[in-house]
Amino acid sequence: MLLILLCEDKPVQLKEYCTIIQNHIMINKFNSKLQIATSNPIDIIDFLTREAIEIFDKNILVFIDIDLKNEITGLELGKWVRTSFPLAQIVFITTDIKYLLLAIEARISPLDYIIKNHSNYNIKSRIEEDLRYAYDYYLQCLNLKKSYSNLN
User: Fold this and answer.
1) Spatial distance between the Cα atoms of 82 and 100, rounded to a whole number of angstroms
2) Three-state secondary-structure class, residue 103
3) Which residue in 8, 35, 56, 95 has a CA-CA distance of 20 to 30 Å to 117?
4) Does residue 92 contact residue 99 with C-beta atoms inside 8 Å?
5) d(CA 119, CA 14)
6) Are 113 and 92 a contacting pair, CB within 8 Å?
7) How do beta strands 89-94 and 112-115 pair?
8) What does pTM read for this prediction?
9) For the stretch 19-46, what's the b/e string if a residue is b when 16 or more beta carbons lie within 10 angstroms of its beta carbon?
């Protein structure tokens, strides 16, 4: 299963992104779940820490507002996810392009970097593209596991 986590501090955008993600999962019948949608990065850290053993064998996609107005910034959350779950896919969403360089310097290696200043359609299509990419990656991992298990 592809687990999806979302951290966005603006309630209207959080709701909008949830709708985009859930609709795309449902329409495409992905074996996927929007596990957490929150404005608090601690919720993401707590979930991943608490469920680490259970989700270790699953693929993770995390959408993060890089400029969270919280004690833990989106950049710090991204660093934590990358360090704790090196195979997780991270997508940063922000209004300010300057954070892109910081994410690169921090070696977070995000899958994507979505700029909020673009049209809502562009944001929606980018989120959907990232979901498809992450799901295809998940399927490739499943196929590899099957191939390797058949060798034994």
Assistant:
1) 15
2) helix
3) 35
4) yes
5) 16
6) yes
7) parallel
8) 0.92
9) ebbeebbeeeebebebbbbbbebeebbe
